[in-house]
Fold:
Amino acid sequence: MPAALLVLALSSFAIGTTEFVIMGLLPEVAADLGVSIPRAGWLVTGYALGVALGAPFMALVTSSWPRKAALLTLMSIFIAGNLFCALASDYQMLMVARVITALCHGAFFGIGSVVAASLVPANRRASAVAMMFTGLTLANVLGVPLGTALGQAAGWRSTFWAVTLIGVIALIGLWLALPRRTDEPRANLRREIAALRGGGLWLALSTTALFAASMFTLFTYIAPLLGEVTGVSPRGVTWTLLLIGLGLTLGNVLGGRLADRNLKRTLLGVFLAMAVISTLFSWSSQALIPAEITLFLWAVAAFAAVPALQVNVVTYGAAAPTLVSTLNIGAFNLGNALGAWVGGLVIAGGYGLTSVPLAAALLAGLALIATLLTFSTRTPALHTVLNE
Structure:
C-alpha cells in the first residue's frame, strides 16, 4: 500500500474529527464562552456553511494547480483554522476560525479522491479511495470520542490543539509521500461547469442535503439530549459517541454493498429507516439501554446512505467527477447547517429536546420524497443500469 494513501487517510481523519467533535463538546463550549446551547450549535452551522460555500470555490480556484500543491495548500488552511480555534478568546472569534477551517474541507476530499485513485492500478482504484475515506470513518469511531474525552478533561481548547498537531503531521506526510507528477491532465473550466447542467443533478444534491439535515438535526444536539433527557454522564456521552461511531462504520460498509445491488431501493429504505428510528428515539431517549440501542441502529441507517448518495450524484456529473464530488460534500454540509439550525430552532422555540428527533424524522421523509423525484428524471436506460 503506498505510504501516500496512509497520509491521505490521516488527513481525512483530522478533518473528520474537527468537523464532528464540536458536537460532543457543545456543553463545555457554551459554558466557557457564556452562550446558550442553541447558539453554540451555530458553530456546527458555521462550519457546514463554510464547507458548502468554500467547496466549489476552492475546487475551481485550485483546478489548474498541481494536485500535490493544492492538497498542501488546503491542509495549511486547515491547520491555521484549528490553531485559531484553540486560541479563540470569544464566541465570534471561534465562529470565524471554524469557517476558515471549513474552507479546505470539500476540495481536499474531492482532490484527494482523485489522487488516491491515481496511486494504484486501475483495478484497485475503488479500494484506494475507500482507504482514504477510512480516515473519515475512524474520525467518528475514535477521533470524536477521544476528542470529546480530552476536551472534557482538559478543556475544549485542548482538543483543537491536538487536531492542529495531527494536521501538522499530515502536512509533513503529504509533502514527503505524495509524488510530484507532471503528466496530470489540465482541467477544462468550461467542461467542468457544463457538467452542472440538468435538473437531475440538482435533485440528487438536494437529496444529499436533506439526508444530512435529518442526520445533523439529531446529531448536533446529541450531547445535551443524552445529558438532560437520558441522564448520561459526560463520560457516558463519550462512550455513546464511540457506539455511534461503530454504527456509522457498519452502516458505511453495508450501504456500499446494498447500493451495488440496487441504488434506488437502498436510498428509499435508508430514509424510511431514519424516519422511523428518529421518531422512536423521541421516546426511547428517556431510558439508557433503549436510547443506546436506538442510537446504534440510527447510526447504521444514516451512514448506509453515504456511498449510495455519492453514486447518485456522480451519475449526473461523469464529465467532471472531482467538481461534482466536491459539490456533493458541499451539499452534505449545507444539510448539516440546516439540521443544526432546525434543531436549535426546535429547542429555542420551547418544544423540548425530545422534539428534536421528530424534526429529524420529518426531514428524512423529505429526503425520501426527493429520492423519488430524482429517479423519476432518469432515462429508462440509465435507470436500468443503476438498478441491475
